[in-house]
Structure formats: C-alpha cells, structure tokens
Amino acid sequence: MSSKIKLDYERVIAPIDPRIFGGFLEHMGRAIYEGIYDPASPLSGQDGIRPDVLAALKELGPTIVRYPGGNFLSGYHWQDGVGPRSQRPSRRDLAWSSVESNHFGTNEFMDYSKRAGWQPMLGVNMGTGTIEEAGALVEYCNAKGGSHYADLRVSHGYAQPHGVKTWCLGNEMDGPWQIGHLEADEYGRKAREAAKIMRWHDPSIELVLCGSSGIAMPTFPEWDRTALEICWDQVNYLSMHFYANNNANDTASYLALTGQLEAFVDTLEGTLRYVKAKTRSKHDVFLSWDEWNVWYKNMEMNGNWTQAPHLIEEVYNLEDALVVAQWMSVFLRRSQVLKMACLAQLVNVIAPILTRRDGMVKQTIYYPFQLFRRFAKGAALDVLCQAPTYETAQFGAAPLLDVSASYDAESGASAVFIVNRSQQESEPVEIEWQNGAPGKSAHVYQIAGGDPKVANTFEQPNAVVTADLGEVALDGKKLSLRLPPLSFTVVSAG
Ligand code: AHR
After folding, report:
1. Ligand 1 centroid from CA 70, angstroms
2. CA gap 113, 102 in Å, rounded
3. What is the mean pLDDT of residues 375-402?
4. Which residue minimizes the CA distance to atom 3 of ligand 1?
5. Rounded distance, CA 47 to CA 410, Å?
6. What's the pTM?
7. Which of 83, 97, 115, 157 has the smallest count of CB within 10 Å of its CB?
8. Structural domain ending residue among the three candidates 375, 392, 424
9. Which residues are catalytic?
10. Which residues line ligand 1 at a C-beta cut-off of 6 Å?
11. Structural domains counted in the chain
C-alpha cells in the first residue's frame, strides 16, 4: 500500500511570506572576515569581496538577512563601523572573545545587500547600547539629510538613505549569557522606549521584539508574555530562536523533531492571542524565527582575542539536511503566524557555505534551502497525508513522511516537499491533485543518500547535492513515486 498525499488548492493555510527564506550574518568567527569579505584572498577583487561566495549566496537566494548579530550586537556601537576605515577603532568583542577591526560595518553591509539582492534586517544594541543610540542609527540609515546623523551618512558617501524597513530590538535579551542581559520587564520597558524613538525617526519601520532564545529556556514562555504586554502596540514581530541537535546520536528521533518545532510556534501563537486579547488591541504581532539551524558538533566559541577565529564551523551531513528540509516545511505549515525566518548563519559560522582562502564548499544544508526558496511560492496548503508511523525513543510514534505543499494561484504552479524519515526502507507514495491534473507530468528533484552521516568536504564537495530526476508522467491527476530512505523530494507541477 502506498502512502497518500492529497492537495486541494482551496485548502489554504496562508500566503507564504517570502521573508521566511531569510538568513543571518553576524560579526562572529569567519562569517564576515574571511567569509564574505577577505581582502587577503587571491579570489577577492579590489573591494575585498569574495565573488565566489557572493555568487553562491545569490544562488541560495535569502530574501532578507539579519545583521550584525547575534550576541555580538549587544556590545556593538554602530558608529565604530562607519566612516573612513583608517579611523575605525579595533575593539574587543566580549561575546566571542575576539578582536573586531570594524573594517566592515553598516554601509558595507548595505552595499553587499544590494549586490546580493536581499533586504537588510538591522539590529540595535539593547545590551550596552542606549535607546538614543538606537534612534540615531535609524536616523543615520533612513533620514534624508539636514540633521546630524543623516548628514554624517551623506559625508560617508551615501547621499541616499538606505531605507531599512525591518529592525530587531536587541538579541536574545532573555539569555544570562547576553552582554547587558535584562529581566523581561526591564527589557520590555527599554525596548518600548527604543521603539518609540526609532519610530519617531521613521514611522514606516517595523520592529522585532526579542522573544525566547529557545523552548528550553526556564523563562519560556513567560518572558514572551511579559515583554509583549509592555510593547504590544509598538512592535510587529516576536523573535524566536532554536538550534537542533543530535547529541544522542539517535537519528530516528532526530528526524522526527518537527513536532517540537511546531509546539514552539503553537505556544507562542497562543501567547500572541492571549496578549492581544488582554491588551484589548486591534493590532497584530507575528513571529520571526530569526535564528534557526542545526548546531551541536562544533561548540568552539572562544576567539582567544584574535581576529576572524574559526568559531562554530559546523560540518553538516545528510541527516542535518533532512532536518533543515523539514524545518522549512514547518514554516509553510505555520505560515498563518510565521512571517520571517533567518537561517543562522550564512557563511562559515554554522552555515551552508564554508570557505578557505582559495575556495569554498556548499554544505548539505545549502540544497534543501535552495529548493524551498525556488519552489515554495504563493500560499501554503493544508495537505492531507496518510503514511505509516515508526517508533522513536524521544517522541513515540512519528509519521514516516513529513510533507508540506504550496500553490501559486497566479502562475498555477504547485510544489510538494516530502522527507522520507525511514533509514532503511523506500516508501511508495501517490500524490493526488484534487482540483485536477496540473499538467501531463511533474518535475522531480531529490536529495538522498545511504549514510545519514555523509557530508560535503573540500575533498568531496558533491557527496550530497540535489539530483534533477526530470519529468515524471502523471496518471490522470495522480503521480506515483518511490521515495528512497533518508530522502528529501520536491515535486514541482503546473
Ligand atoms: O548564531 C550564533 C549565536 O547563537 C548568536 O550570536 C546568538 O544569538 C545565539 O545564541
């Protein structure tokens, strides 16, 4: 018996906000220096930008990128990173015990964002920073001129405002590890006052409030409720962060993690509803999952006061790629409340791209992200999936297949995203388009392999890549496939 997947174009969850395909670049390790910017690399041009990395990022296609941190943000004074490079101070970065040259800063990030084709999402320092400094950055970036900080930008060679729309009110302020960590009510009040000043400078901006740094935080979800109650009408999004691990080396459970990811969203969605009701507000706040990824193998976070140290350069394998694929399906299945998400991070630091001075490699997780970005368009569908279950030590019985789907009414294109969680068995599946055949055939792409631990390396860069399986004929409005074990399949039709 085949598993069954049924798509009904009228059974819509919500429009897919393209900003769920975002990324994150922090001044940490070799993300910026030796990652996207490396004047010492033989591959870089005059501007120090690595063209191969830029090309790979463009191919990956993040729609919005969060910058400059991360924990780094909570000790960062943005004025250190603007103006003539020769006058920028080198400073100690207390978040990662590193030295920050400030050779790359806000304006360089804006230039890079333009070239890469993504929208910038800037953070303001709510740790050691003041609310005035936060407002000054909005003026520097978004005001036309005729006042101090706007004129400062003009004097730095940027006559036109950068027009940054999305701003984060700090980073992980619930975490005791954060520079200048605050209790929820203290943070709420500081964030609210910063938000007021930032909006006075530019009323068109949208703001992201720090939510919990993870589902395991002892203050979750009380932190979120408290901060939201204080800031509700001033903010547009609540952030959530989560890093997945397979510390137990239990692949069966690891591949069934999505239940926990959905529970995280569902709890916060309930918190949003509660606070909206309690504050008697007509205003809505949505979720921004602005740090998410697998991270557990490389925990090196001490830079020993050097510049661009090798920090958390996680190497990703096939099972990680399958977790990333399912995580993105969670984004589609929760698209009614989740409007932004940022893969943390993009280059070298827990990233889909790893660089050396003379080359780069696309890690396994690069490929599922790229497939979702390319094919998940329009609206997310509430898919019917009938599949057998399997036993896991951590989560009990879990469905063998993890499925999401999208339909773009404008182009008529639909896409189905399926992970077969089985480690041994292939699974026959029948996909039915209930509104009629989307054409004579569908195009199939697949990431698969026999070994969950196989990774892409400089020596073997293509161990896990997307295979283009070409067109597969439909039988009326149905398509039959056999999904290999440990696989991610994308079916694109119409
Ligand atoms: O992405 C690495 C770090 O993880 C970020 O700086 C921080 O926000 C999170 O704890």
Report:
1. 5
2. 18
3. 97
4. 70
5. 41
6. 0.98
7. 157
8. 375
9. 172, 291
10. 26, 28, 69-71, 171-172, 291, 344-345
11. 2
